[in-house]
């Protein structure tokens, strides 16, 4: 079967997958082993040591490559471990351009870990492609895009950024955590590397921390595979199994996340106590046309600011929610609410944060796949407390 010709819903279940070689197990067994017997030095059956390769992780990696329309998938211990591997492609003196409302942990990795190794980072509002082009110089080696952005739901035009990257021979990496390949396939739009916090929608059940990279180019894959093995932040066999299991329902979960996301976004938009709602599905969203062109739906991530609300008001709303769980993270079947200023984005200085719209009263929702009427009632009750 040529997986490449399958539609996404079939790829999610069958892409890159075949029954296990030992006994024909339909689900890949959890190869909970560190090492493999050799008949003679070097005489092994494809696996030597589980940092370098493990059959459960290999099954995950080929599934990842399939759903992102890439050729090589790599499984990591976390999303940030996957990013860390990409950053290790760089040398001291190299420069990176990224978005100014990046995931807080990505910003921290750039500024507090890699800056001290002599790498320079520039942050700009990437909706403006010209602003990116203006920052490119002979030291620029990587453009790091996250779209939709977190938590402001800005949309960056991947095709337009890839034209800039290709013109200047700069690598383009896209953090596809929020959209997932169900909604957006960056490699098809010209990106060189797709990255995931697989902890989120790919896993989908809030029971695993993992990361992923997918690329098309063999030389780039070889460099990343070398770093993955040399640095060693690999995805374990149990986590690989859980991710494979999650990916098999990605398409049905995402369809409902999109439906419920639209329901909640529209509910909040007409609510008298709400000042603003950030969701790329609105026709008046500043980048709605780009979203419509590069995404197959608008997802279940929504941010909003209650009218005249303070830091404390926002905290009291998230504390009063009952069906939405107050928690870091996103992308699970259950609905979560977060307060970026004190949680996910607390590591970004307040002045930096507010420049990109992450004000003290901003609340972020990861809309799950419960009944949407129950979710609305929960928000209604929590909002009536202010
Ligand atoms: C969570 C997240 C990350 C980091 O991934 P971990 O799995 O937590 O290491 C990176 N980017 C985005 C957009 C995220 O939401």
Automatic annotation (TrEMBL):
<dbReference type="InterPro" id="IPR015424">
    <property type="entry name" value="PyrdxlP-dep_Trfase"/>
</dbReference>
<dbReference type="InterPro" id="IPR015422">
    <property type="entry name" value="PyrdxlP-dep_Trfase_small"/>
</dbReference>
<dbReference type="GO" id="GO:0019343">
    <property type="term" value="P:cysteine biosynthetic process via cystathionine"/>
</dbReference>
<dbReference type="Pfam" id="PF01053">
    <property type="entry name" value="Cys_Met_Meta_PP"/>
</dbReference>
<dbReference type="GO" id="GO:0019346">
    <property type="term" value="P:transsulfuration"/>
</dbReference>
<comment type="similarity">
    <text>Belongs to the trans-sulfuration enzymes family.</text>
</comment>
<feature type="modified residue" description="N6-(pyridoxal phosphate)lysine">
    <location>
        <position position="200"/>
    </location>
</feature>
<dbReference type="GO" id="GO:0004123">
    <property type="term" value="F:cystathionine gamma-lyase activity"/>
</dbReference>
<dbReference type="InterPro" id="IPR054542">
    <property type="entry name" value="Cys_met_metab_PP"/>
</dbReference>
<dbReference type="GO" id="GO:0003962">
    <property type="term" value="F:cystathionine gamma-synthase activity"/>
</dbReference>
<protein>
    <submittedName>
        <fullName>Cystathionine gamma-synthase</fullName>
    </submittedName>
</protein>
<dbReference type="GO" id="GO:0005737">
    <property type="term" value="C:cytoplasm"/>
</dbReference>
<dbReference type="InterPro" id="IPR000277">
    <property type="entry name" value="Cys/Met-Metab_PyrdxlP-dep_enz"/>
</dbReference>
<dbReference type="InterPro" id="IPR015421">
    <property type="entry name" value="PyrdxlP-dep_Trfase_major"/>
</dbReference>
<keyword id="KW-0663">Pyridoxal phosphate</keyword>
<dbReference type="GO" id="GO:0030170">
    <property type="term" value="F:pyridoxal phosphate binding"/>
</dbReference>
């Amino acid at each position: 079967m040529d997986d490449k010709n399958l539609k996404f819903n079939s790829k999610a279940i069958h892409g890159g997958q075949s029954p296990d070689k030992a006994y024909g197990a339909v689900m890949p067994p959890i190869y909970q082993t560190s090492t493999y017997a050799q008949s003679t030095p070097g005489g092994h059956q494809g696996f030597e040591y589980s940092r370098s390769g493990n059959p459960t992780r290999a099954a995950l990696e080929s599934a990842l490559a399939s759903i992102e329309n890439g050729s090589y998938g790599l499984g990591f211990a976390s999303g940030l471990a996957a990013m860390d591997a990409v950053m290790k492609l760089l040398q001291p003196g190299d420069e990176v351009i990224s978005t100014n409302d990046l995931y807080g942990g990505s910003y921290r990795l750039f500024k507090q870990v890699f800056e001290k190794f002599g790498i320079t980072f520039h942050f700009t509002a990437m909706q403006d492609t010209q602003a990116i082009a203006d920052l490119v110089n002979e030291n620029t080696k990587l453009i790091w895009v996250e779209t939709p952005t977190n938590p402001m739901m800005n949309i960056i035009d991947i095709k337009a950024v890839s034209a800039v990257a290709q013109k200047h021979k700069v690598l383009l990496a896209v953090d596809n955590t929020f959209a997932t390949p169900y909604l957006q396939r960056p490699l098809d739009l010209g990106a060189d590397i797709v990255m995931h916090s697989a902890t989120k929608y790919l896993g989908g059940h809030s029971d695993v921390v993992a990361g992923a990279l997918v690329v098309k180019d063999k030389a780039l894959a070889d460099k990343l595979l070398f770093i993955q093995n040399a640095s060693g932040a690999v995805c374990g066999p149990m986590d690989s199994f859980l991710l494979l299991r999650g990916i098999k329902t990605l398409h049905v979960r995402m369809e409902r996340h999109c439906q419920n996301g639209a329901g909640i976004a529209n509910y909040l938009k007409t609510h008298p106590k709400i000042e603003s709602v950030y969701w790329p599905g609105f026709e008046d969203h500043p980048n709605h046309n780009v979203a419509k062109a590069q995404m197959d739906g608008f997802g279940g991530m929504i941010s909003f600011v209650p009218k005249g609300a303070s830091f404390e008001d926002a905290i009291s709303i998230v504390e009063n929610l009952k069906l939405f769980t107050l928690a870091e993270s996103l992308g699970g079947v259950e609905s979560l609410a977060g307060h970026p200023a004190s949680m996910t984005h607390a590591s970004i200085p307040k002045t930096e944060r507010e420049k990109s719209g992450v004000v003290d009263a901003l609340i972020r929702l990861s809309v799950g796949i419960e009944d949407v009427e129950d979710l609305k009632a929960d928000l209604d009750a929590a909002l009536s407390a202010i």
